[in-house]
Design goal:
The structure is a homodimer. By secondary structure, chain A is α/β, with parallel strands linked by helices. Helix content of chain A is 48%, strand content 12%. Chain A contains 15 helices and eleven strands. In chain A, the strands form three sheets. A seven-stranded parallel sheet of chain A has the order 1-4-5-8-9-10-11. In chain A, strand 6 and strand 7 form a beta hairpin. In chain A, helix 2 packs antiparallel against helix 4, helix 9 packs across helix 10 and helix 10 runs parallel beside helix 11. The longest helix of chain A has 25 residues. The two termini of chain A are 21 Å apart. At the A-B interface, helix 9, helix 11 and helix 14 of A face helix 9, helix 11 and helix 14 of B.
Chain lengths: 351, 351
């Protein structure tokens, strides 16, 4: 591989520079992405076409000196492959045709069909081949809890009324869903690795909406189960795992013990403070507020330096935003960020 | 006063029982509130009528054995009294007719007119008189930063693109707005206290959307300025101050040092852990997930006991939700919560 700084940083091994990639780096802020999406007809058609998914995955790498590629896909492929019928109305969030709320619906919920997910594994193979060793490829999945939120609510939610009602009134039902989700995520990520993914990331987008006790019981426990089931190596090399709970800053110590090699951080926590709390147990990925990219290159550079300085050098830092890049971001500002991070990477990253 | 447990708990003095009140306790989950609001014609007409504001403030106290009343008002009265033109479209959030984005708009922004806010102080006087010493009355304001979010964005936002762009690109402009907001909040809360409010709460609804460094500079610093400017006593008694940053669990130590007597907690932090972190510097208010109230009385009671147990007895706990009660909450479930908290209040609350 030409540039494996990303994989080394995740494993807290010395790297040549602080690697950077950007959540949702293949996305609507790029005109070429919008052109491909238009050609595909819809977001879901784009995600389900291995050729087009490969095309958009590579687009940001043509523009920016990024240190990793991430599979272009959606976090809701698994419930779709459980038969729930995913769709996206234009300008709206995801919707499921069928929800999982009653005892009967929970009982009948199948594991995700890997056959139905073949388009994902085909995309992984194709992207990996197209990358030709340039940078590593990240596979990913939504976390069992985050998937459950959508499966119970039937789409996005701002109060999680239905899934939290289930959590408090019928915790047994939610546990049954989470158990099926965890098994499905393990099979899904292992198949991505078998197809060529060189690192995996578990996105727990909504775990941060839970109380401390509920987070540990309904989100973290199933992340742990997922990591315990994952292949540790592929192609003779360790496959690093990243765990990201948005809004999870209070739980870092517990998260550092769940089997992940690296934790994703949003921007609410100072990365130096996070490092003091997790010690040498995990690497850290993050943690710039995506809103910084709305400001001019000078302030982008200033914030990048602040985060690099706060981490303080040495191995174990992957630079990233603390959430997906906004569709309103000028691509030039992403360029400014990537350059600033590489320019100010501490030589100490080697130490 | 017949029941001053709330004031004593905020000052970490022994109380007869763990006091409880509920954020947004006068709200849409109560049919009698909806009836009054309908009579008023709109939310804003309700908030701007001292008589109707008094009426809805007292409604939850008729139903439930609550230990405090809170002024019925809106957090955006101050920018409205700066001339920005607040309105609420039916079923939508708040909107301002004028925003504060340019250098010129910031320069011309006046302090809030206390004359324009007279309806609030009249409501406070009327409510206080109507309470007749039954329980204490809480006054409140939005925090300088939270007000600025709405003033710059012109309404609610899910990414705070405009206010954060200003924060990173032109921090001087945001500081100028925050300075005017802080001065206005001081005058506003002092006038509420002069009119009869016996405790005050500063709602920092959106501080939790900031990075660690930005929170300290743009939200917490101005909360500190507000508390430094507030009258300490009224009617010969200390006026306790509560500071609540939703999503602020990572910053508790710094918040405990900003001049507040008590900190509001959302549900993402375990209250026992929060107590260990702040020690005896402040009391704590919280911290049940409002979603617990969607579940049956048995699980409401179980969660209430869990929180009381986690706090662990002794003075300094005011029970509350970690955010406003949802409009979808059955009133009977609020009753179950209030009763459970009183029933399971530790005798140790006296110790």
């Amino acid at each position: 591989m030409k540039n494996d700084n990303f994989l080394r940083a995740l494993l807290r091994e010395p790297a040549d520079r602080t690697p950077i990639w950007i959540m949702r780096q293949a996305g609507r802020y790029l005109p070429e992405y919008n052109a491909t999406r238009k050609r595909a007809g819809s977001f879901l058609a784009l995600a389900k076409s291995p050729e087009l998914a490969c095309e958009v995955t590579l687009q940001p790498l043509e523009r920016f000196d990024l240190d990793a590629a991430i599979l272009f896909s959606d976090i809701l492929t698994i419930p779709d492959a459980m038969g729930l019928g995913l769709s996206f109305a234009e300008g709206e969030g995801p919707r499921f045709a069928r929800t999982v709320r009653t005892e009967e619906e929970v009982r009948r919920l199948p594991l995700a069909s890997l056959e139905e997910l073949r388009y994902v594994f085909d995309a992984v193979s194709l992207i990996r081949k197209s990358l030709a060793g340039r940078v590593p490829l990240i596979g990913f999945s939504g976390s069992p809890f985050t998937l459950a939120c959508y499966m119970v609510e039937g789409g996005g939610s701002d109060d999680f009324r239905l899934v939290k009602s289930m959590l408090y009134a019928r915790p047994d039902l939610l546990h049954a869903i989470l158990e099926k989700n965890a098994q499905s995520v393990v099979a899904y990520l292992n198949a991505q690795v078998a197809a060529g993914a060189q690192a995996v990331m578990l996105f727990d987008t909504w775990g941060g909406a839970l109380s401390d006790a509920a987070y540990r019981e309904f989100s973290l426990a199933y992340a742990r189960q997922v990591f315990a089931g994952l292949a540790r190596t592929a192609e003779g090399r360790t496959v690093p795992r990243i765990f990201f709970t948005k809004g999870g800053g209070l739980w870092l110590e517990a998260m550092a013990d769940c089997g992940a090699d690296a934790l994703g951080l949003d921007w609410t926590i100072d990365i130096g403070e996070a490092r003091r709390r997790v010690g040498d147990r995990v690497a850290l990925q993050g943690n710039m507020d995506p809103a910084v990219l709305f400001s001019p290159p000078e302030s982008i550079e200033r914030e990048a330096r602040r985060i690099l300085g706060s981490f303080g050098g040495g191995p174990g830092h992957v630079f990233n935003l603390g959430h997906g890049v906004s569709q309103f971001t000028p691509p030039d500002h992403v360029h400014a960020l990537v350059e600033a991070v590489h320019r100010h990477s501490p030589g100490a990253a080697r130490a």
